[in-house]
Every structure is written in structure tokens, then in C-alpha cells.
Specification:
By secondary structure, the protein is mostly helical. Among the domains are: 36-312, no CATH class; 485-582, Tetratricopeptide repeat domain (Serine Threonine Protein Phosphatase 5, Tetratricopeptide repeat). The chain has helices at residues 40-55, 67-72, 107-120, 125-152, 167-178, 184-188, 193-215, 221-241, 247-260, 265-273, 283-286, 290-312, 332-351, 376-395, 422-439, 443-467, 471-477, 486-498, 502-515, 520-532, 536-549, 554-566, 570-583, 588-600, 604-617, 622-634, 638-651, 656-668, 672-685, 690-703, 706-719, 724-744; strands at 18-20, 154-156, 162-164. The protein has a 3-stranded antiparallel β-sheet with strand order 1-2-3. Strand 2 (154-156) and strand 3 form a beta hairpin. Helix 17 (471-477) runs antiparallel to helix 18. The longest helix is centred in the N-terminal third of the chain and has 28 residues, at 125-152. The chain is elongated and about 120 Å long.
Length: 745
């Protein structure tokens, strides 16, 4: 336990150190770690290097899984978005006030992504991964100090120099933390930086609070107040990196009361049972400034929650049944049993991090529906162990047996949320090795076990880091862990579809729908592929089912409209497009497709209006601009087509398709020189486009540059020998050239 000497025992000339101590384990580990003990600097250097070695294989990996949404598709990273918007957007770049927002408020983490983007000059993943690896290394180094507090405390000489009382235990626990494979997702997945930053400032806040408690034993209270306020500030920073950061204030308070203040729960219970009216235990609230520190912590925490509430509002994030099936169970008992089962699985991942998966939802963990399920034994075992630990930590009469283990556990099975809770695992394991070392003579065997665990975990980290280098490796690695997880099959299918392997993608999408018949995103993607393969009937059935299950699924409504348009069911298609826009008002692609429908129906004004809406919502929507130019060109509105084309090129100056469309309009308006320049510029950007050469040849044909026309007709036919229009025009040119040759003769 922590022992803080009373001020009247330490005079001005006293050379005894100020002690801040818990049960010392160092002597129990003498035969496990080598002697002499590494100095603190070298111990930290070893831990930091080991942490880097474990995850170095991920440094040149891709952006994978959630990285796409949080980084690549997040406009908050780009310079065009004002920095102030970061404080009003969620982690994924959506406005916090939006109904679709996840309410994950982590502006400081997003700010680090933005700095990475700026320094890298774009979305180059190496810089992002390197920062994550260095953060984990730094946190692991910081753990040496944290475990020094938890195991041996910090002892200060009269000159303020810090002495490490439990170097072996601290080094072992820090090594166990540095090499834990469950950390791979946080380190190798860029979005895991939220957990890394939260952990960094969480630990700094805790160490700052320990400093405040030490300072409170001295005469000057101003220094103690400063460190408490700094600890609260660091807790706020941790919260702005990830929501759970605010819990450090609760940890600091509990640590202060139970460890530093030696508040005995067992003693209080006994006094209550014996109706003892003694106020002796209340005296500790006044001694050492504990009550003052509790007031500061409470005020700081309340202030942080209030500011967060004002920024985010009271609306909870919207989740679906596939996110957490237990939350949608009708029975309170079933929900409680499954929540506790999730806790036991989290604990198992800490104890045996061999089966790791990027996602544990959608059938990966079948729901426990009754108490007769054998898995209830697992959660019973978890609580049996936890209750035993709590009793040992809070109620033991022997102060040296109070291990003071404080760690928190995530509410769902997700490896990212286990980053900080793994500290508790490291504490438990180190205590266990200390106890074994004390009560057995087989010291070398224990040392071999410790070394084996560290080396095996290091190897597992390296293997797992390699799996996080690409989405294909990551998704396929999950098949052996969670073969019943529909999202695993969905992600493999999506990855295959992006690579153009539609046949294999269909197989995985079908399996995802089979495993989860309500998986609307899999239905939508499968329907899209079937649409492209002209299997329109099945595509319509799938998309219709998707919007029936989730009526506000705007993308599925739009895709359903595309299929219905292809089936010539124009009224149904228009209704589907309108429904999609109703659920997502700013939907440029849907306006574009609606314009195509109107163009097919010869409703030219409606088509132009729809495409104009698309370009207003998305100024770089090249297809919408192109269709407007082509429609105006085909209907003889050359002046308007030219104006639209120039406007489009002003917004997207390097788009060769826009250059081509505007060049056609200028050629018809007999602005040959300007048209030629645009054609040549478009050909330079895309030299293998047969139509570009063919239409330039037509321009030269009209202009009278017959030799140049002949040259580009021939290039066009080499690129596309089947182009009937080009063949016909080339034939006309050759006959004209032959006639001219006959006249010359």
C-alpha cells in the first residue's frame, strides 16, 4: 500500500526519502529477470525497441478497413476544410448534428491525421503507420513509470531525485504490455491512433496525479493544486482523442482514496455492522488535501461532460441490430447474459490473444438465448475471478496483499478497446509470476516460461502485423477465426469486386446474405454486380428486399432505380430516385441518374435541371457536366453548350473528357483553331481513345486539312477497327483525295 509520511515526521533537515509505496514485488522476481537490474534509462530503451520490433512490419502497409472512411474519405484532413470544422464534426467527418453521425467526438486525433496528410503531401500511408508505431513505443516506455507506481511506488530523496523501488517487476510488466498481440489493431490500423493517443494522455494524467499526491505531503499546496489541474487538463485531452479518456479522473479518485489514503473497505463495513459512530476514517478526507483534490476532480469532470454535451447534443448514435445483436434482444436477462459473455471473451483475448479478428460482429459470436447454453459457465467463471480479485484488492486485512488492480473493459468484443485494459492483464501476470517465484524453487523454469511468453507474443505480433498490411490478407485471416461472420465474407467480396473479380465476389456476397438475411449492404453490392452482368431480375429482387428491410437506405433506392430504368420501368425508376433523394438530400449521383432517366424520356429540361443539381452538390461531377454539354450539343443549343463546357473546364481543368466534348461543340461552331487545341490536349491526356482521334479527324476534314484528317482517321481505326462512323468518314475522305489526284493529273 502507499504510505505517505505525516508532515510532522519530516523536518526541514530530514534526509529520509518521501515514500510513495505499494507492495514490493522486486525481491520476488530476482530469479526471473537478470541481475543486476537495468538502469531506468536502459530499461526504457529496451522496452521501446522491443515495441518497435513487434509492429515494424506494418510500417509500409495500406490503409485498410475503417481507415478508408476515417482517413481517405474524410474531408476534414484536407486543407480546403477549415480547422474550426474539426470541432463540429465526428471522427468520420460527418456533422455531429446529423442523424447519421456516430457521435464519436475525437477532434485531436483527426487533427493528427490532418498533420500527417499535410507532411506526407497526400494520402501516403507510410507516415501514418510510422506515427502509430512510435506512439505505441512511447506508451510502452511510459508504462515503466506507471508500473513502478503500481508495483514498487516512487521514492524521492530529499533532493527530489526519483528512485525506482520495483525495477524488475516494472520492466517485466512493461515488456508484457509492449509485446501483447491484441494491440496489433491499434498499432497497425491507422484509426487505432485514437486509442493510442487516449492511452498516452490517460497515463500522463495518472502520473501527474501521482505527482500531485506526493506534492501534497509538503508544506506548499500550490504545487499540488497545479499538478491536479494539469492532470485534469491531460484527462480532457485524452477525452478529445477518444471518449473513454475521461475515465482517468475516476481512476485518479479511486487510486487517491484506496491506495494513497489507505481507505479500508473492510474496516468501514465492519464499523457499519457494529454501528460504530467513530469519525476516525473521515479524518483522512481532511488530511493531505484529499477532499480538495476530490472537489477539483469532480468539478473538472463535470465541466468536461458539460462542454461535450453542449458540442454534441443529447441525441444518441444510431445503431442497427447487426452492430450489437444483444442490444436488440427482447429479454433483459438475455441482454445481461450476453453483455457479460462479451466481457469474458474480452478477458480471454487478453489471456490468449491467438485468435484475432478485425471484426467480431454479425454472427461471429452467436447470441446466448437461454441460461441452458453452456457458455453461461464462461461468464460465471469470469465473475468468480473478478469477485475474488475485488475482495483481495479492497477487503484484505493485510495491506500488502491489496493489489489495487484498476482496469476497465470494453462493452463489446473489439480488440481496439482492449489497449488500456491490457494493463490490468500485465499487472495480474506479473503478480502471478512474483507469487510463483516466491513459493517455488524452480526459478529457472519460471524464467523460461516468462521468456517464452515474451518471445511467442513478439512472434505473434509480427505475424499479425503482416496480416494488417493489406485488406486481402486482413479479411482472409478472419475466415479461420469467424467463419460465421457475414461482415468477413462481405469485406472479402468487396475487395474482390474492387479488383474486378466479380465471379468470386458474387460467391462471397451470397454467403454473407445467407449468413445474415438482413444484411442490406451485401444485398446492395450483390445487386450492383448482377446489374452490371445484366441479371436484372435478380438484381431488382435483392435491391427491393434491401429497401424493404431498411427503408431509408438511399444508395439501395438509387441502384433499384437504375435497374428499373434498364428494365424500361420508367415510372418506378423515377419514384425510386425520388425516394433516395428524400432520404439523402445531398445526393449528386442520384440526381445524375435521374437526369439520365429524363434524357431517355426526352424530357430535356428536366434532365438538364437534374444534372445541374448534381454539379451544384458536387462541382467536380464530370459525368453530369459532360451529359449537359452533349445534350445541349445534340439539341442544337451550341452557344449554351459552349458556356456550360467552359464553366465545367474552369472547375475541372484537367478532365480530358470535358475537353473532348467542348472541342466537338467548338468545331460545330467553326471555331476550328480553339477546337483543335482542345482535341490535341485531350489526346495528350488520353492518347489511346479512338473517338478522340476520329473526331479530330472530322474537324480537320471540315477545316480542309485533309492530310491531317487522313492521319487521325487511320490512328483511330488502328485503335478501334470496328468504329463504323469512322470507317464511313475515312471512306469519304479517301474518295475525295482520289478525285483531287485525278484532277491534278
Amino acid at each position: 500500500m502507499v504510505e505517505i509520511p505525516n508532515q510532522h515526521n519530516a523536518g526541514a533537515g530530514d534526509h529520509q526519502p518521501a515514500v510513495f509505496r505499494m507492495a514490493e514485488l522486486d525481491t520476488d522476481l530476482d530469479h526471473i529477470l537478470p541481475s543486476p537490474v537495468l538502469p531506468p534509462f536502459w530499461a526504457k530503451l529496451v522496452v521501446g525497441l522491443v515495441a518497435i520490433v513487434c509492429f515494424a512490419r506494418s510500417y509500409d502497409g495500406d490503409f485498410v478497413f475503417d481507415d478508408s472512411e476515417a482517413i481517405v474519405n474524410n474531408k476534414d484532413l484536407q486543407a480546403e476544410t477549415p480547422l474550426g470544422d474539426l470541432w463540429h464534426h465526428d471522427f468520420w467527418g460527418s456533422r455531429l448534428s446529423s442523424n447519421t453521425s456516430h457521435k464519436s467526438y475525437r477532434p485531436l486525433t483527426v487533427l493528427t491525421f490532418r498533420i500527417n496528410y499535410y507532411l506526407s503531401g497526400g494520402f501516403y500511408p507510410v507516415g501514418f503507420h510510422v506515427v502509430n508505431i512510435l506512439l505505441h513505443s512511447g506508451i510502452s516506455v511510459l508504462m515503466v513509470d506507471v508500473f513502478s507506481v503500481l508495483f514498487g511506488g516512487l521514492q524521492y530523496t530529499s533532493k527530489g531525485q526519483r528512485l525506482h523501488l520495483a525495477p524488475r517487476a516494472s520492466l517485466l510488466a512493461a515488456l508484457l504490455f509492449a509485446v501483447h498481440p491484441v494491440h496489433t489493431e491499434c498499432v497497425a490500423g491507422v484509426v487505432g491512433r485514437a486509442d493510442l493517443l487516449c492511452a498516452l494522455f490517460f497515463l500522463l494524467s495518472f502520473l501527474g496525479y501521482c505527482k500531485a499526491c506526493r506534492e501534497s505531503t509538503k508544506e506548499g499546496m500550490h504545487s499540488s493544486t497545479f499538478w491536479v489541474l494539469l492532470s485534469i487538463f491531460l484527462g480532457a485531452v485524452a477525452m478529445l482523442c477518444k471518449e473513454q479518456g475521461i475515465t482517468v479522473l475516476g481512476l485518479n479518485a479511486v487510486f487517491d482514496i484506496l491506495v494513497i489514503g489507505k481507505f479500508s473497505v473492510l474496516e468501514i463495513v465492519q464499523k457499519v455492522l457494529h454501528k460504530d459512530k467513530s469519525l476516525e476514517n473521515l479524518g483522512m478526507l481532511r488530511n493531505g488535501g484529499l477532499l480538495f483534490r476530490m472537489t477539483l476532480l469532480t468539478s473538472g469532470g463535470a465541466g468536461m461532460l458539460y462542454v461535450r454535451w453542449r458540442i454534441m447534443g443529447t441525441g444518441p448514435p444510431a445503431f442497427t441490430e447487426v452492430d450489437n445483436p444483444a442490444s436488440f434482444a427482447d429479454s433483459v436477462l438475455v441482454r445481461a447474459i450476453n453483455y457479460n459473455y462479451y466481457y469474458s471473451l474480452n478477458a480471454w483475448l487478453l489471456l490468449c490473444p491467438w485468435w484475432l479478428c478485425f471484426d467480431w460482429s454479425m454472427g461471429c459470436i452467436p447470441l446466448i438465448k437461454s441460461v441452458s447454453d453452456w457458455r453461461v459457465i464462461v461468464l460465471a467463471a469470469l465473475w468468480f475471478c473478478l469477485i475474488g480479485l475485488i475482495c483481495q484488492a479492497l477487503c484484505s486485512e493485510d495491506g500488502h496483499k491489496r493489489s489495487n488492480l484498476f482496469f476497465r473493459v470494453g462493452f463489446v468484443v473489439a480488440e481496439r478497446v482492449l489497449y488500456l485494459p491490457s494493463v490490468g492483464y500485465c499487472v495480474l501476470l506479473t503478480f502471478g509470476f512474483g507469487a510463483l517465484s516466491k513459493h517455488t524453487k524452480k526459478k529457472k523454469l519460471i524464467a523460461a516460461v516468462v521468456l517464452g511468453i515474451v518471445l511467442i507474443n513478439m512472434l505473434r505480433c509480427m505475424v499479425r502485423s503482416a496480416q494488417w498490411r493489406s485488406e486481402e490478407q486482413l479479411f482472409r485471416s478472419a475466415l479461420s477465426v469467424c467463419p460465421l461472420n457475414a461482415k468477413v465474407h462481405y469485406n472479402i467480396g468487396k475487395n474482390l469486386a474492387d479488383k474486378g473479380n466479380q465471379t468470386a465476389a458474387i460467391r462471397y456476397y451470397r454467403e454473407a446474405v445467407r449468413l445474415n438475411p438482413k444484411y442490406v449492404h451485401a444485398m446492395n453490392n450483390l445487386g450492383n454486380i448482377l446489374k452490371e452482368r445484366n441479371e436484372l431480375q435478380e438484381a431488382e429482387e435483392l435491391l427491393s428486399l434491401a429497401v424493404q428491410i431498411q427503408p431509408d437506405f438511399a444508395a439501395a433506392w438509387m441502384n433499384l432505380g437504375i435497374v428499373q430504368n434498364s428494365l424500361k420501368r420508367f415510372e418506378a425508376a423515377e419514384q425510386s430516385y425520388r425516394t433516395a433523394i428524400k432520404h439523402r438530400r445531398k445526393y449528386p449521383d442520384c440526381y445524375y441518374n435521374l437526369g439520365r432517366l429524363y434524357a431517355d424520356l426526352n424530357r430535356h429540361v428536366d434532365a438538364l435541371n437534374a444534372w445541374r443539381n448534381a454539379t451544384v452538390l458536387k462541382p467536380e461531377h464530370s459525368l453530369a457536366w459532360n451529359n449537359m454539354i452533349i445534350l445541349l450539343d445534340n439539341t442544337g443549343n451550341l452557344a449554351q453548350a459552349e458556356a456550360v463546357g467552359r464553366e465545367a473546364l474552369g472547375l475541372i481543368p484537367n478532365d480530358h473528357s470535358l475537353m473532348f466534348s467542348l472541342a466537338n461543340v467548338l468545331g460545330k461552331s467553326q471555331k476550328y483553331k480553339e477546337s483543335e487545341a482542345l482535341f490535341l490536349k485531350a489526346i495528350k491526356a488520353n492518347p489511346n481513345a479512338a473517338s478522340y482521334h476520329g473526331n479530330l479527324a472530322v474537324l480537320y476534314h471540315r477545316w480542309g486539312h485533309l492530310d491531317l484528317a487522313k492521319k487521325h482517321y487511320e490512328i483511330s481505326l488502328q485503335l478501334d477497327p470496328t468504329a463504323s462512323g469512322t470507317k464511313e468518314n475515312y471512306g469519304l475522305l479517301r474518295r475525295k483525295l482520289e478525285q483531287m489526284q485525278k484532277k491534278d493529273v
